[in-house]
Amino acid sequence: MIEISGQSYPEIRESVRKLCADFPGSYWQDLDRDRVYPTEFVQTLTREGFLSVLIPEEFGGSGLGLGAATAILEEIHRSGCNGGACHAQMYTMGTVLKHGTPEQKADYLPKIASGEIRLQAFGVTEPTSGTDTTRIRTFARRDDDNFVVSGQKIWISRAEHSDLMVLLVRTTPREECVKPTDGISVLLVDMRKAIGNGLTIRPVRTMLNHATTELFFDDLVVPASCLVGEEGKGFRYILDGMNAERTLIAAECIGDGRFFVDRASAYATERSVFGKPIAENQAVQFPIARAHIQITAAAEMVHKAATMFDDGQPCGTEANMAKMLASEASWYAADQCLQTHGGFGFAEEYDIERKFRETRLYQVAPISTNLILSHVGTHVLKMPKSF
Ligand SMILES: Cc1cc2nc3c(=O)[nH]c(=O)nc-3n(C[C@H](O)[C@H](O)[C@H](O)COP(=O)(O)OP(=O)(O)OC[C@H]3O[C@@H](n4cnc5c(N)ncnc54)[C@H](O)[C@@H]3O)c2cc1C
Description:
Layout: H1 10-21, H2 25-34, H3 39-47, H4 66-78, H5 87-91, H6 94-99, H7 102-114, E1 119-123, E2 139-143, E3 146-157, E4 164-170, E5 184-190, H8 191-194, E6 199-203, E7 212-223, E8 227-228, H9 234-270, E9 272-273, E10 276-277, H10 282-310, H11 316-340, H12 352-360, H13 369-380
Parallel strand pairs: 1-4
Antiparallel strand pairs: 2-3, 3-7, 4-5, 5-8, 6-7, 9-10
Helix pairs in contact: 1-4, 4-9, 9-10, 9-11, 10-11, 11-12, 11-13
This protein binds flavin-adenine dinucleotide.
């Protein structure tokens, strides 16, 4: 592993690295084969307090900022592990923390901090609306002290491993709203009560081990006390959470990128072909150096987005730019690492092909590259909108 000077939170990074050493490639390969959830890894991270860093101390967390959380996820990914199984436990609670009632915070946050409650599922995407979130159709109808939810979600990760889910629903039809972003609300769904009582979960097998699912709501009754914030204002509540999510996922990409550069530079130095290390050939060496440069630059953007978030500044553009740069840098590094390993890159025991599959996700989820380019093109550069 190459030394990176001036990295933030060196002690946290060192502790994460030590923890991850107990979860070597063979652990992840076994789970990956059968798409099994990394329960032991998640429990260990929870027990050591790494998933509650963003929860204020008064609610049992360590009250650190997004900068610390990015350091944790980067190191997890750099170690060859994957935080995708549990990263949402870190940030999904932000919607409750910022917009929940005092009762919701007191009821849930201490238990989320201790791990007694897993808040790992964030239900936004639907099969017909895709990225156009204002067109979600899952509808929550008010019925006295309850909401009755009907509809469908897709790609909702970790739903089977969550006790609570932050669910985005329409509470007023789009056509009856002044703005398309109005009439959307956030519900906190207790999965333990919902499954089998109006909520059905269907796992979706994907090219990576990500515990993602499809959800079907058939008149699921949710108490009105589970509404987060004001009815109809949910769209703006989740935007802030999305900035945290994009920044943290960008940090995972930085970790992936560093994993690939570490592995590629070490392998290229060791592997001898035509009587000398392949790294002596600049055609092998330069792409690895380029990957390192791209990751280093993207890491600066991640740092900027996290710092702005922690300072309470609007950081939507920076979080998006960080996610795009980091996901592209990690993908370039993945490709070069695979190429550097030749045939061995395809062998499961090297972990390169697994990480290669895992890091590809981040150019699509949680937001695809085109939508980030569109945001920058229209909001930042003020060019005409296409939609
Ligand atoms: C493994 C996995 C886990 C996920 N986990 C979750 C989760 O936990 N919760 C959740 O809510 N969602 C989750 N998602 C969903 C993810 O956020 C979406 O897949 C992503 O936002 C893209 O939406 P879509 O798949 O509907 O693509 P679409 O919106 O159908 O877009 C398809 C392609 O067209 C492009 N495109 C669309 N419109 C335009 C346009 N106007 N201009 C240019 N290009 C355009 C997009 O960039 C994209 O490349 C997950 C997805 C995956 C694959």
